[in-house]
Amino acid sequence: MATRQLARSVVLQSLYEWDFYSKKEDFSKILERNLAEFAPGIDEPDFAWRLAKGVIEHLPELDKIIEKAAPEWPIQQIAVIDRNALRIGLYELLYADPNEVPPKVAINEAIEIAKNYGGPNSGKFINGVLGTVYKEVGDRTQNASQSQ
Fold it and tell me: Cβ distance 90 to 65 under 8 Å?
């Protein structure tokens, strides 16, 4: 498994645990433990930390975007895995450096995580929500290069 893909998986597992316990546990300790257990010697641990920190810092905005893009699915009714795969994908789609993580890579990685850890329809659900958001915001990589 590629380093960043592994990092995303560990972040997903950590967010799942944190979310499952109603965000009452210390997230840093959860991520630290999971990195040590599931990704010892990972090449880019800072990527996992940046990703997790970004998702948590933008959590209210990410959840509002999810609710707008999937109005028939209140955030608490979305499966915990799917909810957190969406948060990771949305964070990378909207806030990560598009030259580091192109939008289509962000979407594809979130879909793969959902397929690996979620239910039989998770990949389709994630694809639908992230595709809707992508259509609204456009390709930030192209927008960034056009404005220069």
Answer: yes
Strands (E), the chain: none
How do the pLDDT tens digits run along the chain, 148 residues long?
Answer: 589 999 999 999 999 999 999 999 999 999 999 999 999 999 999 999 999 999 999 999 999 999 999 999 999 999 999 999 999 999 999 999 999 999 999 999 999 999 999 999 999 999 999 999 999 887 654 544 444 4
Considering the entire predicted model, what is its pTM?
0.90
Asked if residue 81 lies in contact with residue 11, where contact means CB atoms within 8 angstroms, the answer is: no
Q: Is 147 helix (H, G, I), strand (E, B) or coil?
A: coil
Please enumerate in sequence order all residues whose Cβ is within 8 A of that of 32, keeping only pairs 6 or more positions apart, or say none.
none
